[in-house]
Amino acid sequence: MGLTIEQQHVMDCMLTGRQGSRLICFGSAGTGKSFLIKEIVKTFNCSILAAPTGRAATIIGGSTIHKLFGIPSTHPINPDFKDQPVHRQRFNDPSCRYFGGQRKEVLKHCSWIILDEIGMVRCDHLDFIEAALRKARGSFEPFGGAKILCVGDVGQLPPVAQGRDAGTLKRYGYKAPFGLFQSNVLNTDFHQVSLTKVIRQENPIEANILNRIRVGAQTKIDIDYLNTRVQAPDSKAVILTPLRKIRDEIKDSMLQSAQAAGAGNLPKEVQRMITELTEPKMNWRELIRQQIQSTIRNDYTFARPSRKGWHTGAVLPGMNFMDTIDICIGIDMSGSIGNQQAEDFLGEVKGIMDEYKDYKIKIWCFDTNVYNEDDFSADDGRELTDYEVIGGGGTDFDVNWTYMKEQDIQPKKFLMFTDGYPFGSWGDEDYCDTVFVIHSNHDKALEAPFGMTAHYEENVA
Fold first, then answer.
1. What is the DSSP string of 308-364?
2. Residue range 23-49: mean pLDDT, rounded
3. According to the CATH classification, is domain 5-195 in 3.30.360.10?
4. Of 269, 212, 205, the residue nearest 237 (C-alpha)
5. Pick the CATH number of 322-455 from 3.30.1280.10, 3.40.50.410, 3.30.450.30, 3.40.190.80
6. CA 214, CA 234: separation in Å to the nearest integer?
7. 140-157 pLDDT, tens per residue?
């Protein structure tokens, strides 16, 4: 399949340079952005590809922007690079503290740098990329004089910036939602091109409907057409929402409708959906596995080039496995959780830990205080199941966050095993990612006000 007229225009801009060395290409889903990137790689052998997430980077055969440009991930970026230069901001983050050498050389000699999914890149990260390129290439020109192609969809969700990060970004002068258009570098003369022809969708009517919905311009005729495809309620159907607020609104609306109709007037499938909403059963073991694995960053490196691009003459990065887990575990021993449940919980975590060659776990018990804090690692010769659980007083969730702040503990993930009945606050939602595994025989619909929630079930496989 050849390039469309719009795709060829982007390629011509890159080949001729008539529109400058900084291009930004917008296109909705199905307009052939990924295909265009693959064709660009074939044309420009020394191009570098990057994306904001590991999955997006994998699709295009590139690296994450954090790895490629040495972007700190533990704190928002200060855009005052005169007072806080690139190397100083990197030094506060162990993952990029020693950025340089071959990683720096790659940025010096590439023909084009292609940033995919640009709509998901946070404003401070894009500004850091510009400053990092100036430093790496030893030039005061924007982006160090490098040729840049940004590709993405402005209709996507903006990058995540909540709690403390949002407050810090505001102090740095950024405005919500802290996305692409809130960055400072878009003022550096980017030439914009667009891909408008939808290739993925064969039916032009449906393609136009989806495009109108994408920009909020749908008509009554569009909605009526979509409603012809609506089927009967299915209890196994998954409702996807971009925000938790929308999910809760849908849940409340369904429950209110069920109450108004009366239990005896609901179809069986709807009754089953209501039951699953009010009595959710989540496999807590699988949730723990997914959340622990989410702390791992398998990334890409040019130190080990991939063989996939050899037939095209392109140099693509290979996989760099960093299977390291760094988490904290707090066990609520206020009285309603017994030693057997606590040991079962630790046994599940141990089983996941055994899958990785490197991990660091900090564990403690708590009631109204924190007890018996201990550290476990892959090479200390001890088993997580050897940990001794103690406690048995009242319940105060806040002591966990107070303890972490006093001890300067900042985990990638905090797992709390609890009965779900705090005396007061559930904790500090802005401090770290938290997973609550709730052991309660009374309220299976109990859900923490932040983080992830799953319910402990002894018989779940």
1. TTGGGT--EEEEE---EEEEEEEEE-SSSS-HHHHHHHHHHHHHHHTTSSEEEEEEE
2. 91
3. no
4. 269
5. 3.40.50.410
6. 26
7. 999 999 999 999 998 777
